[in-house]
Amino acid sequence: MSFETIRPQDINGNVFDLIGNQWMLVTAGDSNGYNTMTASWGGMGVMWGKDVAVTVIRPQRYTMEFVKKNDLFTLSFYDQQYKPALGICGSKSGRDIDKAKETGLTPVFQEGTTYFEQAKLVLVCRKLYDSPMDPSNLLDEAVDEKWYPDKDYHRMFVGEIVKVLRKAE
User: Fold this and answer.
1) Are 56 and 157 in contact (CB under 8 A)?
2) How do residues 129-143 score in pLDDT, each as one tens digit?
3) Number of domains comprising the chain
4) Is residue 36 within 8 Å of 83, Cβ to Cβ?
5) Using an 8 Å Cβ cutoff, are 36 and 89 in contact?
6) Can you tell me the distance from the alpha carbon of 48 to that of 161, in angstroms, rounded to the nearest whole number?
7) How many other C-beta atoms lie within 10 A of the C-beta of residue 71?
């Protein structure tokens, strides 16, 4: 199967469902080295006159190293049959296992980054913004208490969506 290029405005589906319920893989790196992780937090919209996607990564995640050192990252989305694979990518570290081998996902090294052949939708993003979340800016104490008991605050990345690939039918 191949992919077709579409505009960000032509993405089908509800982004709340895509990210929050179906999950996504955040991937960075290339054929010389990459890592991927599952995420269910993020967003899409318009900032600075550009179509953007936002993702957040905790500092201990191996994928953080790859997102930090590369200009590009991908957010990819999958049909429900791949939910177990995404579960592995979210619970096991690429420091310890080969996630592609463990899940059966096939990496595609194109566009200067990495995504997976099984994806139904891929956003290729160029980093525009990179900042650690500052807990002093959390206005709701319950958020800090519930989501950050270990004080491992996410780092936020905003990426310009430079290409959208949709599985060709």
Assistant:
1) yes
2) 999 999 999 999 999
3) 1
4) no
5) yes
6) 12
7) 12
